[in-house]
């Protein structure tokens, strides 16, 4: 559980004004992150267990864009994919304010392999 109560207005402003532009998120990434954020951190949970199919149905997307969005969000560090199985995905969400300032250095032109980009300065902590 989170120790402090989140200010949803501030959270959304940080997401839309800072995190999404900084990471270069597309429409699908934003929708998936918003959905997962709403069902995890906003209600006080750090982790969320979900299926790609259920998120796709709720957002009226097909499975492909949702799966790619989850992978991209994991690569960019907006969430951490802890487990992937037939029963669903387990992710740990990050608040926009927890994002390392070196993120801008990791964002590159589309098509740049992620292994050529520098890693974030702050590793995940448990």
Entry keywords:
single chain, 126 residues, alpha+beta, Arc Repressor Mutant, subunit A, three-stranded antiparallel beta sheet, 5 helices, 3 strands, 13% strand, disordered C terminus
Q: Note the quaternary state here.
A: single chain
Order of strands, widest sheet: 1-3-2
CATH first level of one domain: Mainly Alpha
Tell me the name of the CATH homologous superfamily of one domain: Winged helix-like DNA-binding domain superfamily/Winged helix DNA-binding domain
Q: Helix fraction?
A: 40-55%
**What's the CATH topology label of one domain?**
Arc Repressor Mutant, subunit A
**Major β-sheet profile:** 3 strands, antiparallel
Portion in strands: 5-15%
Structural class: alpha+beta
Q: How far apart, in Å, are the first and last alpha carbons?
A: 13 Å
Number of helices: 5
Residue ranges: pLDDT <50 for 5 or more in a row?
A: 101-109, 114-126
Mean pLDDT: 78
The shape is globular
Would you report the number of β strands? 3
Per CATH, the architecture of one domain is Orthogonal Bundle
Q: What's the helix-strand series?
A: HHEHHEEH
- CA radius of gyration: 14 Å
Task: Give a description of the structure.
- The protein has 126 residues and is of the alpha+beta class.
- The protein has a domain at 27-96: Winged helix-like DNA-binding domain superfamily/Winged helix DNA-binding domain (Arc Repressor Mutant, subunit A, Orthogonal Bundle).
- The protein contains five helices and three strands.
- It has helices at 8-23, 27-38, 52-59, 63-76, 103-106, and strands at residues 47-50, 79-85, 88-93.
- It is globular, with a radius of gyration of 14 Å.
- The two termini are 13 Å apart.
- Residues 101-109 and 114-126 have low confidence and may be disordered.
